[in-house]
């Protein structure tokens, strides 16, 4: 799973929730490799691992329901929930009504 917009938060382990368009089939307990970027790598570039994560919960719902607390868990303590929604919509070119997967996860020790 790519975290190009939140690499710093992943390295600091301050991010424990992410929202994704898609990922509908993800299940609680699945372990994933968090990377900075995995698509659009230029020749000679390699993916940068940010560590492993385990999904602890997943819920589908409209993006517009982000709370201030969730903005913090997304790694943006300086944003309100509404400001995070605005940031997400601008970054992902979507609207607040967009159904997203709210994915909770825990950071695992890297081998």
Number of H/I helices: 3
The coarse silhouette is globular
Helix content class: 10-25%
Broad structural category: alpha+beta
Notes on the structure:
The protein is α+β, with helices and mostly antiparallel strands. The protein has 3 helices and 4 strands, in the order αβββααβ. It has one domain (7-108): Sulfate adenylyltransferase, CATH 3.10.400. It is 22% helix and 30% strand. A 4-stranded antiparallel β-sheet has the order 1-4-3-2.
Can you summarize this structure?
The chain is an alpha+beta fold and 111 residues long.
How does the SSE layout of this entry go?
Elements (H helix, E strand, L loop, with lengths): L6 H6 L4 E4 L10 E5 L13 E14 L5 H6 L7 H12 L6 E10 L3
Q: What features would you highlight for this structure?
A:
globular, 111 residues, alpha+beta, 22% helix, Sulfate adenylyltransferase, single chain, 4-stranded antiparallel sheet, 4 strands
């Amino acid at each position: 799973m790519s975290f190009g917009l939140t690499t710093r938060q992943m390295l600091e382990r301050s991010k424990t929730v992410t929202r994704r368009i898609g990922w509908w089939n993800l299940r609680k307990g699945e372990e994933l490799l968090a990377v900075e970027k995995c698509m659009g790598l230029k020749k000679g570039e390699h993916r940068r691992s940010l560590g492993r994560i385990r999904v602890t919960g997943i819920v589908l719902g409209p993006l517009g329901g982000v709370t201030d607390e969730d903005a913090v868990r997304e790694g943006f303590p300086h944003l309100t929930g509404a400001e995070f929604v605005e940031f997400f919509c601008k970054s992902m070119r979507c609207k607040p009504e967009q159904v997203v997967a709210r994915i909770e996860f825990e950071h695992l020790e890297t081998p």
